[in-house]
Amino acid sequence: MEGIRACLVAVALASLFCVAHVRSSASDHRYKAGDEVPLYANKVGPFGNPSETYRYFDFPFCSSVPLKEKKEALGEVLNGDRLVSGPYRIDFLSEKDAEIACKRKLSKEEVARFRTAISKDYYFQMYFDDLPFWGFFGKVYNVGKADPSDCKYYLYKHPVFQIFYNKDRVIEINVRMDTRAVVDVTGDEPVDVDFMYTVKWKEIDVPFEKRLDKYKSSSSLRQIQWFSTLNSCVTLLLLTAFLATILMRILKNDFIKYAHDEESADQEEETGWKSIHGDVFRYPKHKSLFAAALGCGTQLFTITIFIFILAVVGVFYPYNRGALLTALVVIYALTSGIAGYAAASFYCQLEGTNWVGNLLLTGSLFCGPLFVTFCFLNTVAVAYKVTAALPFGTIVVIFLIWALVSSPFLVLGGIAGKDSKAEFQAPCRTTKCRRDIPPLPWYRKTLPQIAMAGLLPFSAIYIEIYYLFASVWGHRIYTTYVILFIVFIILLIITAFITVALTYFQLAAEDHGWWWRSFLCGGSTGLFMYAYCFYYYSAQSDMSGFMQTSFFFGYMACICYGFFLMLGAIGFRASLFFVRHIYRSIKCE
């Protein structure tokens, strides 16, 4: 237990450091008249493919100033951010009107690149004093009918910056493209372009602490989200309560029946879940794999709790670049001891002897598929030359975190779990001979049970999943973490209850193989989530192309697999508590 406490203390300290870092950043961003305000160009890409982004200066934009790359944190690099000094110079309170940034002669190849980008709705992202803003490359005029050859392609060359300030601080920036200052890039001939820009300043009384409020969801959208989420959750909770009442009445009748049989000392053969008391606590097959899955699920549940804590205290404010990914990497490394302890402790309770092999399996059960997926997708990113391709130095840093932090914590947790010498608490003795499971109807077999188990929990979260997908795989901003936390708690409650109910009906059918079944039923919501990915991709998004498709389905497979492990662990823990309780309540011979 000392190793687990050390892991939790380390995670708590890391969380406090993140909060302190975020709070301390509010003391910066003060300027005097004439001071240069930092402007960074980030990335460009097709609007429908959020993962397909390229460096800003991969396109022949104005680059008359020396390029300086901004030092980025680990999470920013993982997020695909590649900030370099922007093409425009903006001084505090200094206005400019149609200032020439540079003059360029675009070759036929460069004109063709811009034309292709405009046809795919390419956008750019920049940061001005850490405030993000966006704009499109150009516009398409369809002067004919449906024939693409009748389209005219125009490149914007004149952004107009409207900047709002409060005393010595920048509060807001808006950019619009001057639609009258365009360049026709329809043809295949070289074009001369005069890139220019306009800067306007206006004072407002909005405090600096509220300058990010404009990036949060609108109040009307939050109200709709609250109403729809609470409406579905209340309905599901009522249904769950109704089913729980029925289950409790059935259990009560079972207890009365078995108590009456004991008093009458009848020699009739036992039936129902009592008849398998000698097999219900028989250890499952592949117990090392089972304990490893339980350990990984416990770790992922702990990570989720810490992420919610950081979200509620305001670490993941809008466009805090890479904060979430940094937190995930750090917290995952520091909580590896929890996975090692939970897996090794339970494996030893199941009388396992190869605890070293169990630790190796625990360390690779989630990281293994994630590593294989990352290698494939990073190769795709390198081939497409997108910013999602991680530099070699970042890969080395991640490897060192895994080798020097995650792996030692995993080993320490495993040693602590092995030395805990906890015994498996079984209210009934297990017989030497395994009891045969009677033939079961098709709807009581594993696959139909998994399908039924995942449907109700998924129904509780599918509305919130849409908003999450629109944020992660789109351009919306997600800030309603309180709603998400409420939905997560409801998901845990419904998953635990549904798994317990199905476990009871399985035992009532005299099927004692409930260990793996309860884990699979609990984690089946992850399978429904992945099935929803296909619907979202085809009906709710504009994503296209091999690169974006592979990124979406590849990383979502890892995320849904993580949910499968976490909810599977929750479902099994709830079922284990329930099974121990009901068999402790009867007299077993």
From TrEMBL:
Source taxon at top rank: Eukaryota
The keyword NADP appears for this protein: no
InterPro entries to which the protein is assigned, alphabetical: EMP70 (IPR004240)
Claim: Membrane is one of the keywords in the record: yes
GO biological process, any: protein localization to membrane
Record-annotated membrane-spanning stretches: 226-248, 289-317, 323-347, 359-384, 390-412, 450-469, 481-502, 514-537, 552-579
Membrane topology note: Multi-pass membrane protein
Protein name per Swiss-Prot or TrEMBL: Transmembrane 9 superfamily member
Keywords carried by this UniProt record: Endosome, Golgi apparatus, Membrane, Signal, Transmembrane, Transmembrane helix
Any Pfam family: EMP70
PANTHER family hit by this protein: TRANSMEMBRANE 9 SUPERFAMILY MEMBER 4, TRANSMEMBRANE 9 SUPERFAMILY PROTEIN
Localization annotation: Endosome membrane; Golgi apparatus membrane
One of the record's GO cellular component terms: Golgi membrane
Regions annotated as coiled coil: none
Family: Belongs to the nonaspanin (TM9SF) (TC 9.A.2) family.
Signal peptide location: 1-24
